[in-house]
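Tokens for chain A. Residues wanted.
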């Protein structure tokens, strides 16, 4: 097996010597450069397994090297190490394609850990084997897969935005599976499903005797995901009190158990998701702007199914195979497939799965359009045109109000049942009721 080779780029000779000595003692080959131009010349002549670069160099910035490597050798991870550490520089480096960003002074232990982690990054040529779950060859899905390939090489936090049922958790699992953390835990948390009074203990764990019923020490989500990925689904539903504590855990990379007296280090990559617009939540004061910038370093938008209808036949075949629904005599007619292609799918892929499961469960022969039990088409034409003079947000609020009121009426005013029908959390429904002025 070939010995990995690392390129280190810095204009400080003493630091170059120290880093080179450390890496050589780890059994690695090392090459050096003192400027952007010299680094580009080295990169043109050979392949490196890792590049470590300073941010400020005599003839430019380390970001030039990050972008150059991303374009010419995308499988090579680049880490930026700089004395000019700031949140803006970190975000810029990670968005440019950097694997990680570390502020000086960096300890030798931290440097070794960074190098060991980076050199475990999988070869992206083989990562495509893990694309199970993201079905479709539409331009929108190709763009999603391309971005997943890029962000999997990085340590940057990712925010996945998309409507309910678009596959946000599938995308998060793919990012984890293609990353160097693939062999470590992937812990998924639905932030809207945890009672507010239990959030701190669920996230950070607790010590024995911390409260009534705490009969033994227990790990939280952060400890369970140590070394791996923590996926925070519906992160917009976190209450403000928990947002403050989460921000501190992200900044310090340490957590304190409930009832504990010391903080424990944790190494997790954060991926968050929501069907809500986080930027809008920040504007109205429901989400902290500093936490938003920490979580939303890279945004991945999952397209709704109505924007990639050409993928529906492939999705149907995939779903039927996965659930074993293509084993019997029942099959979709061409008319049924055409009806699915015309349908808007407000519930996206999850709704498609439910439609197919129900149709195949109730039918023994050919499945036609009438067997799919599709919801009526939304109003179009003159009805929609009649509302065209309204501001867009007013129109959307009016439509949302009708849908929410219909769900409440159908469930006899039971908000929990209405939230389940609408595919949102109870906390999200409560926020919508307040925003829309529904008593």
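Reply:
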């Amino acid at each position: 097996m070939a010995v990995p080779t690392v390129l280190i780029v810095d204009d400080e000779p003493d630091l170059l010597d120290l880093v080179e000595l450390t890496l050589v003692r780890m059994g690695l080959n090392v090459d050096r450069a003192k400027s952007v131009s010299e680094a580009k010349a080295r990169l043109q002549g050979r392949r490196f397994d890792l590049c470590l670069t300073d941010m400020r160099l005599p003839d430019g910035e380390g970001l030039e090297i990050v972008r150059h490597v991303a374009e010419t050798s995308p499988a090579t991870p680049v880490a930026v190490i700089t004395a000019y550490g700031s949140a803006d520089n970190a975000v810029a480096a990670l968005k440019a394609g950097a694997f990680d960003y570390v502020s000086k002074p960096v300890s030798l232990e931290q440097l070794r850990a960074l190098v060991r982690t980076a050199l475990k990054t999988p070869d992206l040529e083989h990562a495509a084997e893990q694309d199970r779950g993201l079905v479709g060859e539409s331009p929108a899905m190709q763009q999603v897969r391309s971005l997943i390939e890029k962000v999997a090489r990085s340590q940057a936090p990712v925010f996945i935005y998309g409507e309910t049922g678009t596959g946000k958790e599938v995308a998060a699992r793919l990012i984890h599976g293609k990353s160097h953390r693939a062999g470590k835990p992937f812990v998924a948390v639905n932030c809207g499903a945890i009672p507010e009074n239990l959030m701190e203990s669920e996230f950070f764990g607790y010590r024995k005797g911390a409260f009534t019923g705490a009969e033994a020490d227990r790990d939280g989500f952060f400890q369970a995901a140590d070394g791996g990925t923590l996926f925070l689904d519906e992160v917009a539903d976190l209450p403000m009190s928990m947002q403050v504590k989460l921000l501190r855990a992200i900044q310090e990379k340490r957590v304190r158990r409930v009832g504990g007296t010391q903080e424990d280090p944790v190494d997790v990559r954060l991926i968050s998701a929501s069907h809500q617009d986080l930027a809008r939540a920040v504007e109205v004061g429901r989400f902290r702007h500093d936490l938003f910038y920490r979580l939303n370093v890279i945004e991945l938008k999952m397209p709704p199914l109505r924007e990639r209808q050409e993928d529906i036949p492939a999705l149907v075949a995939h779903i039927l195979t996965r659930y074993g629904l293509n084993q019997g005599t029942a099959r979709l007619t061409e008319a049924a497939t055409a009806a699915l292609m015309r349908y808007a799918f407000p519930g996206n892929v999850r709704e498609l799965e439910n439609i197919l499961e129900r149709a195949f469960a109730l039918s023994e022969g050919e499945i036609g359009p009438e067997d799919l039990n599709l919801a009526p088409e939304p109003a179009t034409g003159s009805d929609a045109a009649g509302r065209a003079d309204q501001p867009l947000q007013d129109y959307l609020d009016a439509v949302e109000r009708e849908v929410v009121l219909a769900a409440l009426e159908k469930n006899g005013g039971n908000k929990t049942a209405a939230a389940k029908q609408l595919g949102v959390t109870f906390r999200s429904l409560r926020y919508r009721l307040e925003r829309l002025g529904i008593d």
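The radius of gyration is 25 Å. The chain has four domains: 5-118, 135-301, 305-372, 386-436.
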